[in-house]
Amino acid sequence: MESGRAASRGRGGRPSRQQSAQLADRILDVAEKLFLGHGFGATSIEAVAKHAGISKRTFYHRFPGKERLFEAVVRRLIERWLPPFDSALLSPPNLADALRKTAEHMLTIALTPEALALHRLVIHEAQRFPSLARIMHDLGAASGIERIASHFEPRIASGELRAIDPRFAAEQFILSVVTGPQRRALGLGVR
Questions:
Q1: What pLDDT, on a 0 to 100 scale, did the predictor assign at position 13?
Q2: Contact indicator for 180, 110 with CB cutoff of 8 Å
């Protein structure tokens, strides 16, 4: 058994790339659960390391701190949510169908327990940890605005859409689709 373990490791007893990736995924899984369940402020590096079954030294070898870990968790969540997003905008032949499919996809994601917990966490912690709001904006909203605007631009150029600021239009589209239902799902208003 021991020789099998040694064979799967790289030189010097270091973990293989696959083992290293699996460890990073395990750390992110644990961090996601703790951040979304307890909040950013209440989640410690010690708790993440303990629940992941690693030392703090191993943790710090992969993540320089809690903020970067949070950023990695948010990035992974968004990457998990976004892959079909562009196909919703690209596949329909007309703009109305494209926007409807995009809105349906955005709502499906925005109303998941994970997305609601993340939204709740950022709102709750933004005053004490303003960088969390910046991370969410940069990785989430700003990215979504740019992706939608990039699909509006050729439609504006072709005359299918009137001459408008594509980023402003994309932001208004996202706000009109997501804000009301998400607020109600968070308990702010009638469901």
A1: 60
A2: no
Q: Is 18 exposed, middle or buried (0-12, 13-18, 19+ CB in 10 A)?
A: exposed
Cα–Cα distances (Å) from 136 to 29, 35, 61, 105, 143, in that order, read 18, 14, 24, 19, 10
Residue spans of the chain under pLDDT 50: 1-10
Decide if 167 contacts 177 (C-beta within 8 A).
Answer: no
Predicted local confidence at residue 22, as pLDDT: 87
User: Would you state the structure tokens that stand for residue 113, as one six-digit string?
Assistant: 């327990």
- pLDDT score at 34: 94
Tokens 């925005």 correspond to what residue?
Answer: 110
pLDDT given for residue 188 in this prediction: 82
Cα–Cα distance, 67 to 79 (Å, whole number) = 18
Tokens of 59: 């943790």
Q: What is the DSSP letter of 12?
A: G
27/70 Cα distance (integer angstroms)? 11
- Per-residue model confidence (pLDDT) at position 88: 63
Query: H-helix or E-strand containing 49?
Result: helix 45-52
Rounded-to-integer distance, Cα 181 and Cα 191, Å = 8
- Evaluate the CA torsion angle 56, 59, 63, 67 in order and state its sign: negative
Q: What gap in Å lies between CA 160 and CA 138, rounded to an integer?
A: 29
